[in-house]
Specification:
Two copies of one chain form a homodimer. Chain A folds into two domains: 54 residues, Homeodomain-like (Arc Repressor Mutant, subunit A), CATH 1.10.10.60; 127 residues, Tetracycline Repressor, domain 2 (Orthogonal Bundle). In chain A, helix 5 runs parallel beside helix 8. Chain A is mainly alpha-helical and 232 residues long. The first copy, chain A, is built from eleven helices and no strands. The first copy, chain A, binds a DNA duplex (30 and 30 nucleotides) through helix 2 and helix 3.
Chain lengths: 232, 232
DNA sequence: GATTGACTCGTACAACGTACGATGCGATTT
DNA sequence: AAATCGCATCGTACGTTGTACGAGTCAATC
């Protein structure tokens, strides 16, 4: 009887944390586990980017055979899913009371979100393809709770949550994309040099060059919040 | 002397349109060309998604050998770049004068942008990884021109353009992601069913279920524009 | 001691991107 | 007319990838 379908039963990632330690090769490596796999996958992704994650390489880093991974994981996609969600954990606002300063709470959470993703740029390119993990859902839940407490009407809650989510995702993806490739940008400029007179406004605004990304992010967020919850 | 580096010289896509027709096999297939390759790639992407685009399959559809593609294109990545940009062409507002109704002009362009991408959902997942093509730049240029005309200060232009871009990208990617997978969503619900009490707000807002995406998009855009260019 | 179930891994395979070099063909040159 | 050249096509082959399959190990249970 093969192990087929035993460990990683069912479809989709198992969003779990608790598991039995139960190490059995006490000599060197601390035995395989989803946690270790995910942690190492994140390391590898940080070091080599999305294309650098290969099952064999991941197994090597873990001191295991390639096929051993498949006991804990259905396929490579699931590794991506788990790695992505693991990076998006939110530890909550520092000390501020969210009820009192809802605006601060939102800002903190969303800026932390953005920072988390920019700290692992591969996550931005992964996000569009992947499912909602529990950490993402937690953030959305928190967002909804704060907005609701801030006075957003029930009927508008959906639109408000999505608007903020959209904005954060968009800003992060854009930033991660251009951050990864400062020379790509230069190359683009080069490549389009002879067309540059077609884009005078972009040229004038130096849109592609010097940018206060963080400031722009905050400002746009401010506008959005002003619209969602008018200052009294 | 091999053809190596002859046709697709240099690095990066050639953002060109004009080319000599010059068909030489007059019998059946109208000869290979970048235009034909890109058009067929888009077809294939529409039909099979990002993972469905393989060089061999693309060549088959074109009635050509796989390696023939490489005369016109450096590698598969370039096919993605070209396909993405080709989908993002903007034909301009219908009849409205952009100077008079700048708000309408912006809305039209951005909604068209979003619609273009949703019409080819693969484009949303491709965008984070790819470079700026001329069609994207044109849209940004137009956006900047309109905003500038609407009274946005030179110093704020950058932030304003990026805010809108971010919002559109984020909204589109989110929507495309969830649209692709209505059953993924159901599966996610299922998978997280036992955790559902952890997300009461999401539950209550039915965030994952019924959504007026278009309405939410417009509303958020309104808020953003109100912030960027206060109504007098 | 036999059985079971959790876990590991060596081998093998099919599919993929694409390097390489041969080939064909029209236009240009001699 | 013959030779040359540049554009374009494609058959073959290689290296790399994800992963199916089944054999193997070991601890716990009966």
């Amino acid at each position: 009887m093969a192990a087929k379908g035993g460990g990683a039963q069912g479809k989709g990632p198992q969003w779990q944390a608790g598991s039995v330690p139960s190490l059995q090769q006490a000599d060197s490596e601390p035995a395989l586990s989803i946690e270790r796999i995910v942690a190492t996958a994140v390391e590898l992704l940080d070091a080599e980017g999305v294309d650098g994650l290969k099952m064999r390489r991941l197994a090597d880093r873990l001191g295991a055979g390639a096929m051993s991974l498949y006991w804990h994981v259905d396929n490579k996609e699931e590794v991506f899913d788990l790695a992505l969600d693991s990076v998006l954990e939110y530890r909550g606002p520092p000390q501020g009371i969210e009820a009192a300063d809802w605006r601060g709470a939102i800002f903190h959470m969303l800026e932390d979100w953005r920072a988390s993703m920019l700290g692992h740029p591969w996550s931005a390119s992964l996000l569009p393809r992947r499912a909602l993990g529990p950490n993402i859902l937690s953030r959305l839940e928190l967002l909804g709770r704060i907005l609701s407490g801030a006075g957003v009407a029930e009927a508008d809650l959906n639109g408000a949550i999505w608007s903020l989510w959209n904005y954060v995702i968009g800003a992060t993806i854009t930033r991660a994309n251009f951050d990864l490739s400062d020379d790509d940008m230069a190359a683009a400029q080069q490549r389009l040099a002879h067309l540059s007179e077609k884009y005078p406004t972009i040229e004038r605004a130096r849109l592609l060059l010097d940018n206060d990304w963080d400031g722009a992010f905050r400002k746009g967020l401010d506008f959005l919040l002003d619209g969602l919850v008018p200052r009294q």
